Amino acid sequence: MKSLMSRLIIGALVLGVGAGLVLHYQFASSREEIVAVLETVTHLFLNLIKMVIAPLIFATIVSGITGMAKATGLGSLFARSMVWFVSASLLIGAYGFLAAHAMGVGNGLGLTPTAGGSGIETEPVTPATFVEGLVPQSFIEALASNKPIQILVFSMFFGLALLALKSANGDSRLADAIDELTTVMLKVTGYVMTLAPIGVFTAVTAALTAEGVGAFATYGSLIVSFYTALAGLWVALIAVGALFLGRGVLRLIAAVREPMFIAFSTSSTEAAFPKMISSLTSYGVDRRATGLILPLGYAFNIDGSMMYMMFSSVFLVNAYDIDMPVAQQILMCLVLLVSSKGMAGVPRGALVIIAAVVPGFGVPAAGVALLLVIDQLLDMGRTATNILGNAIAVAVLGRSATDTTAHGTTQGGDVPAAATELVR
Q: Are 77 and 410 in contact (CB under 8 A)?
């Protein structure tokens, strides 16, 4: 069944490209109406995904925490995860900045600043607003708005409290009920994901119907440079995975190919989240560890988006021939890095963060509107890379958590056979 779904998704992707090009060039007069219909179907599929995201995050995190034999195991896993995510952001940010300059993206365009704006609604991004946004004023509002970081924070408090009661009483019917809720939500997710080929087809067809191949001609250099650098990042990520997982990294890539295709075609990490949990579990990562690490990764480990922001900011500086010292460019990139940690769940979040940050460093706000033309094409690659980076992070960190479990120091319960094989 899994291989059949993979073939259906790949087939939908290929058919979407062909159908989109045909519709773009053969039905130019009704192009907008066709795109509107296709995007409606795509949004319906994405809404189905969003429908299961919040309860799935809550259930998997709480279930993971209450599955811990000792609360210290949670702290250790959280600390290791944050060290991984912060280190990855710094290294990938540096790689993206250096690669963009080495490839000279934007050089020679000689754009002239205009009085227009970016066309993107933004709010000032400051450390204070980021920190305040971590904690929900209302858990119900966080659930309704699908704010993963806020759901994560509340779920960790809730899970720790439930773990304390479970430890004191020796058992907890509520903990058992939430374990059952996790199982139910994964079943619901399975039903939703049977519609993935339709969502993939309409998303790709809509994008190609609207843009055709014209965007490739105008922004070809930036697109080619970005995807070339992205390929280098993939090699680096897979190499890091091989360092920890050995040949198991190839099995991991095979296991997560479906969520990667879904993310690529829909440009949505949310669309891939439910499938990521089941794919990583089938690979051998303990579901409790996945439930803890993956939501953190969605908030803090956005490898593809991090590199995109570096590329785009350097592109705008070079395109407008702005005489900006390297030190100031690095500072701009650091601000982008910090600001990006609050963009989880924000549509086209990377572009929104760029629009909010770069004007403060003398880059014309209107320049960001230039990126809108090809953002869909670049978003597909960066979103798939986000999935790959998180898959490797969860597999490595989840393995170490399972390894600790095998020695009886972190988690209770049985270790899945696949996870035991992974430790070996």
A: yes
